[in-house]
Amino acid sequence: MFVTGNGYAQKKSSLGVRAGLTSANLKFSGGGTSITADSKIGFYSGLFAQIGVSAKFAIQPEIFYSLLGTKFSQGSGEDKVNLEYINLPVLAKYTNEGFSIIVGPQIGFLISAKEKTAASNSDIKDSFNSTDIAGIIGAGFTFTNGFGFDARYQLGLANIGSKDNPYLGDAKIKSNAFMVGLHFIFYK
To answer: Can you tell me the distance from the alpha carbon of 14 to that of 184, in angstroms, rounded to the nearest whole number?
Structure first.
């Protein structure tokens, strides 16, 4: 009973906040070609929970806002595509001595899509699907006071290009992002 009680006591749950920078791009593929556009810097912020399964394993559901997209060089100017998402990953987390590794799926809900050029700022939300599916892999470190840092890669798995977009034809668009930031765990 003592061993079972001790193991159960180590299954802690906690809440936290996270924020940081993204380096995102879009990958276009179709017709035998593949083009990856230039990376665009954005940001993310949100909340997470850690639900202890054992002393070293936890399930980490999250909800966060992220600014993703890409940019293109057009002659002497630059076009930017800004995609704003609410993301809901559910991650498996392994922690040992403060170091952690995360992996899992994520669903994202598009809340805004804008194209900014030197001449205009256009709403292009109809050019994109309303949801995105991605895989997440990352690592981090949390100090004993609850502050920490982490890095993760978001690999787009679903085509986010709308079928109604006349410019894309059969091309598929996938969103990828590298994220680096800080986090704080309120209750450990």
So the answer is: 10
